[in-house]
Write a structure and sequence with these properties.
By secondary structure, this protein is α/β, with parallel strands linked by helices. The protein has seven helices and four strands. Bound molecules: iron/sulfur cluster (SF4). Iron/sulfur cluster binds next to helix 5. Iron/sulfur cluster (SF4) binds next to helix 5.
């Protein structure tokens, strides 16, 4: 770099302009989003045949570990991505909501298959016509049965959203509730 005895700062400028090979800069926010997107912990709420497709996704052939989302947990305290796979009847709705509320935040929900997304072909009084009646859904997977590739695609889309910094529906709901509370307080005061 050629230090000049008459100008002691000349070398410093050159080093700052050309960082050593293998060095990169980023922001803490970007790094946290990247880490979150690559380490989702799924909680499967499997009630029917869609859950079998989910099982294949975490097994050796499809190997969800390639995308960092293979650490399946059945405790809401240890999960941040709920995958609802199957038909959900009205009696299960409060259980689904409770488990969702107990999950770590920030959290995301994938609705897998037409039954979870819209009730599917169960146009019946006892079946929920879409889980978004009780939990906010971030990605819907179409199909009956949805393919393992479809679920992997949904997880990749969710990862893209997290890396971009898009707010999860949980965050949107939380902000809306906080705004409602504030207006209630203003009305009451
Ligand atoms: S969408 Fe199809 S495969 Fe999935 S739970 Fe419903 S009936 Fe079964």
């Amino acid at each position: 770099m050629g230090l000049n005895a008459s100008d002691p700062d000349a070398g410093r400028t050159e080093v700052a302009a050309a960082p050593a090979e293998g060095v990169f800069t980023t922001t803490l926010d970007k790094m946290v989003r990247w880490a979150r997107a690559g380490s989702l912990w799924p909680l499967p709420f499997g009630t029917a045949c869609c859950a079998i497709e989910f099982m294949s996704v975490v097994s050796s052939h499809y190997d969800l570990a390639r995308f960092g989302a293979e650490v399946v947990r059945f405790s809401p305290r240890q999960s941040d991505m709920m995958i609802v796979a199957g038909t959900v009847v009205d009696k299960q709705a409060p259980i689904l909501k409770l488990i969702y509320e107990q999950m770590c935040a920030p959290k995301w929900v994938i609705s897998m298959g037409v039954c979870a997304s819209s009730g599917g072909f169960y146009r019946a009084y006892h079946v929920m016509q879409g889980i978004d009646e009780v939990v906010p859904v971030d990605v819907y997977v179409p199909g009956c049965p949805p393919t393992p590739e479809g679920l992997i695609y949904a997880i990749l889309k969710l990862q893209e959203k997290i890396e971009r910094g898009d707010p999860s529906h949980w965050q949107v709901e939380a902000e809306r509730r906080a705004a409602d509370d504030r207006s209630q307080q203003l009305v009451g005061s």
